[in-house]
Amino acid sequence: MKRRFQIVAVALAFGFALSGCGNDSGQSNGSASAGSTKSSKSGKERGMNMQEAAERSDAMLDAVLKEIDPEVQWAHGPTTTGSCDVTRRRTVMTIVSAERRQNFLNQVEKFWRESDYRIKAKNNDKEFPAVYAQTKAGFGISVSFRGKGQAFFEADSPCVKESKVAAPAAKPNGPAYEGVYPLPRPNVHSDYWSTGAS
After folding, report:
1. What is the pLDDT of residues 48-97, one digit of tens each?
2. Does residue 54 contact residue 79 with C-beta atoms inside 8 Å?
3. Which of 48, 54, 58, 70: disulfide with 43, CB 3.0–4.6 Å?
4. pTM of the full predicted structure?
5. Rounded Cα–Cα distance for residues 112 and 176 (Å)
């Protein structure tokens, strides 16, 4: 009887140890809140480094910019790194008038919701609106309007393994402004997006 109890105890301990391994595929296997808590740490657990996180952020930014119709012109903003995270930025060079900003944000938010991103917050300010979202893998992404109606996109990684980070590979669809900081204010007119802009 004592021997049987020891075997059962070892089997249970082994089972608990295996259950702690988790699911590295990035798929949700529990409640939404539990999944997001696990996934916010998953980059490091899966071995993702800062370069790979930057490339994932670039892909997220590429995807949302392709969804904006009519197309807007954009340029790369600065890349910044922390001790274990990286932020990629895109700056919209097309003038988006005050009366078109909500439509712009609606397109972005719709795409993020369809991509299964969680909308974390919205700023409904008429002049400087913004939308903030997060992926199941713990990446944050946002779009915000600032001075002169310029739209800025940012994608932030969760904590990942430290590594060197190369410049983005994607080519802007207008001037690159390499070595220029800060970037100019929006200067590209669009018959649709710039309607009503002074």
Report:
1. 999 999 999 999 999 999 999 999 999 999 999 999 999 999 999 999 99
2. yes
3. 48
4. 0.78
5. 26
